[in-house]
Design a protein that fits this description.
This protein is an alpha/beta fold and 294 residues long. It folds into two domains: 136 residues, Rossmann fold; 155 residues, Rossmann fold, CATH 3.40.50.12370. It is built from nine helices and eleven strands. Strands 1, 2, 3, 4, 5, 6, 7, 8, 9, 10 and 11 form an eleven-stranded mixed β-sheet that branches. The longest helix is centred in the first third of the chain and has 24 residues. The chain is globular and about 65 Å long.
Amino acid sequence: MLRPVVVGLDGSRESLAAADWAAREALLRGLPLRLVHAWQAWSPEESRLPELDAPRFWARRILRDAMDRISERHPQVYLSAEQISRPAPEALISAGAEAELLVLGSQAFSGFGGFMAGSVALATVAHVPRPVILVRADETAEAEHMPDADGRPSADGSYREVVVGVDAAHPCEEMLAFAFESAALRSTSLLAVHSSHLSSAYGHVPGTANGKAEAAHALASALRPWREKYPAVSVRELVESGRPAQLLLNAAADAGLLVVGRRIRPTRLGAQTGPVAHAVMHHVRCPVAIVPHE
């Protein structure tokens, strides 16, 4: 049975952009699309008081309007929808566990050019065992592609590059698989980014020539089996000295998708997203895929 692409809806511009992105991704992957809206009613029964039934009406309208929007824009996608009577994080975590990937909208900052993940998105990302993609409100099909010959936005050009952050000392197979597959589906190149600040694991001082050379060798070794599995994907490797999150922010400035990992490592404070994933979730402009791994 095919796992669907699932998108969480709340009626916001961000979630509608996420639904559009999810529909395009479902078509790329040949998967069905499932729209999910979480809403807790005061009572399972409809009320005779209009003011009590108003929230129920708007909750139903969120799904209906989104289905109409997707059906009109992406008529080829196999579409279903469900309203779940549970708190949003619980509903999304449950739906995400059964998905190929879960897509959520993220709220834009007013003045910093990035986006932030609200409490629902943060809680969901930290617990869903499948890849979660965060999408900004201004994300469009044109933004995923390179401009046309005249420099104008176009959805017909080649896809922008996929960027993946790699800890070469502890490569994440699930994350690399997702990144290579995403690049292959888009017939685009992949940029693998690694910080030589992590090179102390190889026995050299981070940032030195030896440390950087060892880091480059480790990155090439981590990527080699995936290059062989996806020979059509053109791969660039970037090893620089600096904080991993900042390197990824710079590398993803013109990307179509950024892929990072999230180690599944519950603590006394509950599941965490990790510092690098947390930073890029808040500041990268393009869609961000957070892939959980052991």
